[in-house]
């Protein structure tokens, strides 16, 4: 019996904006308090892990370093911001993506989320996310 190659069907790939819209819709259905809590836990654990991992190496100063330990814990800060800011939930999730990209080994910035940097990095990332998502022309996100 001769070999016959498998038949490849052409599947339509979803457009990137369609994926973004569906993600945004599913995130908007998520309760804001729950979403803020999830993000808060992730950042708190990341800051604590980096503090243990980096030790004194993590003490390199950057513009994001606080001179003293903030009086508000990272998790509490994130939850407060998430519950009080007016922006799409997608913006909150995008902050995690931006903060994750900062910590990539290929990043030349060498910024790490630690208890001394988490508050400022989160705030800066959130501002960038809001500018990227919420300040688009209305026609881009009409279907949401």
TrEMBL record:
Molecular function per GO: protein kinase binding
Domain of life: Eukaryota
Name of a matching Pfam family: Cyclin
Gene3D superfamilies: Cyclin-like (1.10.472.10)
PANTHER family found in the cross-reference section: PROTEIN CNPPD1, PTHR15615
Protein name, UniProt field: Uncharacterized protein
């Amino acid at each position: 019996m001769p070999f016959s190659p498998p038949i490849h069907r052409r599947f339509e790939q979803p457009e990137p904006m369609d994926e973004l819209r569906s993600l945004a819709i599913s995130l908007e259905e998520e309760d804001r308090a729950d979403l803020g809590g999830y993000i808060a836990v992730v950042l708190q654990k990341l800051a604590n892990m980096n503090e243990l991992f980096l030790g004194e190496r993590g003490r390199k100063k950057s513009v994001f370093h606080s001179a003293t330990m903030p009086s508000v814990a990272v998790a509490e800060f994130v939850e407060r911001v998430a519950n009080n800011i007016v922006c799409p939930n997608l913006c909150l999730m995008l902050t995690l993506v931006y903060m994750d990209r900062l910590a990539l080994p290929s990043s030349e910035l060498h910024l790490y989320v630690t208890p001394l940097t988490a508050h400022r990095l989160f705030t800066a990332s959130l501002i960038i996310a809001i500018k990227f998502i919420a300040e688009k022309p209305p026609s881009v996100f009409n279907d949401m």
